[in-house]
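Q: I'm building a small set of examples for a reading group on sequence design. Run inverse folding on the following structure and report the sequence directly after it, with nothing in between.
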């Protein structure tokens, strides 16, 4: 597998060659080579320790297991502590430089650069642990570490910008830019709690600058290029984008995917993003094949199921109408021993699959077990917790369509996949319209399907019906701001900016509903785009 770890020679490389080879090996699922390259100094030098922890981090991204996440945090903390010790004992930095460069003296510039990198390791470690702590629901610790991290990065970045007598190596500038870009990027998908923390520490987001920094990191192809590629891919394919052209997002994603396929061709990451790209393009068969390949590639790293890839595969199969196959994908996830964000969501989806297949007894039995999966931290399971009570009272007849809407999968499907959904949904129309709450869901979901089928006029009528019932909808509040957003988007593309803005403003009035974070982010970005467009017209 050595071909997967080939690194192009660069004249401006700061780190030793084994670091680059180890990083590429991690992202290529070549764990053996990664360990061979990174293990010699993983207990001695801060950068080596931090990059070695990414072997465990890669496994965590595959399993999404909270057990694996805690193991990753322990390794990151070890690297962080090692870096703190080096900063307290500068002679250790001198010794490290002499060992790595195989020389008996250290220049002032070398000391400055390597000290800067040790400081970067501390800041990177704090940020990494903070984000994982948020993922585990430890918001107080996460907020504390996030604040410390940002303050350190802010200081480091200013030192680079203000340096007149010393030119920092591009590799170090890359790490600083990438890390600041991650902060700039957080507002695109951050939970409300985290967003408040960012605001409290005086952080001002700049998504466009973040994207510029990430792209430069990808172009330079240093040790942060894989992570920068991941963030850029998510920017184009997953994160809320407001009123942006789908074709432009897909083209941006395609360029990144082409790059990562060349650099990390044997890894799970390129396969996963190719799957997401095809899903967003409405190419469900291709997406399904890529997700299956991703799951197989992950087995080189761990025998544990690739949970997030499995969830994507399951919903891809649901969208294709292959519910029996989807149920098998979700069954595997429900039986995973470790706790992971998405387990309760998988169980809900599985129960809905059983209901769709006429296996009512199994659906009821599984619904009785779902409380054991609830009340855990994590965004996906927070949604599942909210929907469980609804489905328990109302039933699971159209639950799969609702989940496809929540995931925004419904918005990217082609007519040939939407037509059978519309036929099935209409069978439930009389029953759903007999109750104002289920009527709101029917109208929102059916409007989305009709728009995908090219009937914008009928789609708008369905969305408007939700808005008209806003005063009498008491439980399914989430449908109202989402309906406002769907109407606003349609008006935007028709050139009616004022009425589009009006609906976005109406959507902003709603708080604390299901999926509020993502919907409000989408609404806010839509408003930002409108303001830019209106200024451009003046």
């Amino acid at each position: 597998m050595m071909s997967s770890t080939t690194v192009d020679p660069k004249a401006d490389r700061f780190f030793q060659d084994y670091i680059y080879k180890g990083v590429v090996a991690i992202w290529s699922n070549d764990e053996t080579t990664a360990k061979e390259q990174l293990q010699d100094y993983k207990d001695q030098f801060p950068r080596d320790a931090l990059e070695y922890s990414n072997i465990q981090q890669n496994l965590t991204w595959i399993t999404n297991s909270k057990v694996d996440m805690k193991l990753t945090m322990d390794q990151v903390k070890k690297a962080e502590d090692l870096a703190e010790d080096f900063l307290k004992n500068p002679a250790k930095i001198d010794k490290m430089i002499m060992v790595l460069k195989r020389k008996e003296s250290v220049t002032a510039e070398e000391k400055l650069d390597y000290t800067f990198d040790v400081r970067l390791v501390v800041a990177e470690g704090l940020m990494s642990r903070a984000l994982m702590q948020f993922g585990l629901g430890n918001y107080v610790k996460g907020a504390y570490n996030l604040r410390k991290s940002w303050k350190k990065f802010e200081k480091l970045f200013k030192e680079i910008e203000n340096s007149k007598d010393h030119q920092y190596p591009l590799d170090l500038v890359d790490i600083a830019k990438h890390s600041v870009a991650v902060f700039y990027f957080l507002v695109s998908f951050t939970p409300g709690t985290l967003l408040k923390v960012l605001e409290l520490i005086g952080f001002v987001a700049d998504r466009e600058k973040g994207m510029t920094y990430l792209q430069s990191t990808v172009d330079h192809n240093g040790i942060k290029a894989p992570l920068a590629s991941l963030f850029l891919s998510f920017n184009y394919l997953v994160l809320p984008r407001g009123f942006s052209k789908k074709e432009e997002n897909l083209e941006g994603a395609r360029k990144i995917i082409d790059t990562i396929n060349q650099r990390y061709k044997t890894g799970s990451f390129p396969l996963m993003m190719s799957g997401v790209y095809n899903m967003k393009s409405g190419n469900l068969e291709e997406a399904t094949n890529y997700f299956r390949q991703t799951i197989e590639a992950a087995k080189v790293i761990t025998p544990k199921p690739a949970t997030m890839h499995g969830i994507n595969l399951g919903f891809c199969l649901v969208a294709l109408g292959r519910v029996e196959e989807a149920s098998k994908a979700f069954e595997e996830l429900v039986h995973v021993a470790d706790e992971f964000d998405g387990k309760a969501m998988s169980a809900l989806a599985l129960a809905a699959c059983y209901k769709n297949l006429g296996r009512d007894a199994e659906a009821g039995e599984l619904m009785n077990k779902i409380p054991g999966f609830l009340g855990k931290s994590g965004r996906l399971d927070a949604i599942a917790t909210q929907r469980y009570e609804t489905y328990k009272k109302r039933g699971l007849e159209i639950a799969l369509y609702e989940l496809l809407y929540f995931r925004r999968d419904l918005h990217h499907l082609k007519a040939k996949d939407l037509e059978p959904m519309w036929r099935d949904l209409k069978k439930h129309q009389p029953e759903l319209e007999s109750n104002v709450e289920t009527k709101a869901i029917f109208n929102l979901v059916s409007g989305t399907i009709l728009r995908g089928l090219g009937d914008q006029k009928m789609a708008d009528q369905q969305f408007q019906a939700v808005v008209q019932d806003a005063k009498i909808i008491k439980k399914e509040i989430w449908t109202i701001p989402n309906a406002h957003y769907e109407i606003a988007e349609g008006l935007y593309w028709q050139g009616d900016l004022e009425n589009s803005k009006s609906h976005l403003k109406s959507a902003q009035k709603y708080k604390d509903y299901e999926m509020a974070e993502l919907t409000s982010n989408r609404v806010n970005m839509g408003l930002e785009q409108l303001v830019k467009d209106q200024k451009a017209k003046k």
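The CA atoms of residues 134 and 140 lie 9 Å apart.
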